Amino acid sequence: MAVQRWTSRRRAAFLTALAETGNVSAAARAAKASRSRAYQLKAADPDFAAEWVDALETAIDALDAEARRRALDGVETPHFHQGRVCGTVRKYSDTLLMFLLRAHRPARYRERPMAGSESDVDSEAALAGARDTLAARLACLDDEPEPDEPPEDPE
User: Fold this and answer.
1) Number of structural domains, the chain?
2) Which pLDDT tens digit goes with each residue over 83-128?
3) If you ran DSSP here, which 8-state letter would residue 144 be given?
4) Which of 48, 60, 50 minimizes the C-alpha distance to 12?
5) Is pTM beyond 0.90 here?
6) How far apart are CA 15 and CA 13, in angstroms?
7) Are residues 20 and 58 in the same domain?
8) Domain range for residue 17?
């Protein structure tokens, strides 16, 4: 079955909404199209697929900028006293800041594996493999014939 092409207006509406929301369902609604038709067109049209990727990158860039703003500038939250707002408090997220640092500088801010942790399994497996290899080589040495021993003295 041939995939029906979209009008340039529908295509632009979809891609604009996808760039703004990062959500295929919302973009399809904005373009008055179904999600399945959008995915079919993406599979059939390499140009549309490339524009789709660009739109998602734009949405992700916006998320990154918002996360950065919240981590660095904080978020104003209301402060209540006796049921009434009496001011605001700016809250910062150290957790969000660490996520950003780990994403943009992984070599410096990655989590270090703790001994016995799941991420430490690779190094434990490598050590076990090295031990097995060494044991096999030592076993080969044990299997080598010993030099002839002198005959025992019959007395």
Assistant:
1) 2
2) 999 999 999 989 999 988 998 888 888 877 666 665 555 677 788 8
3) S
4) 48
5) no
6) 6
7) yes
8) 8-62
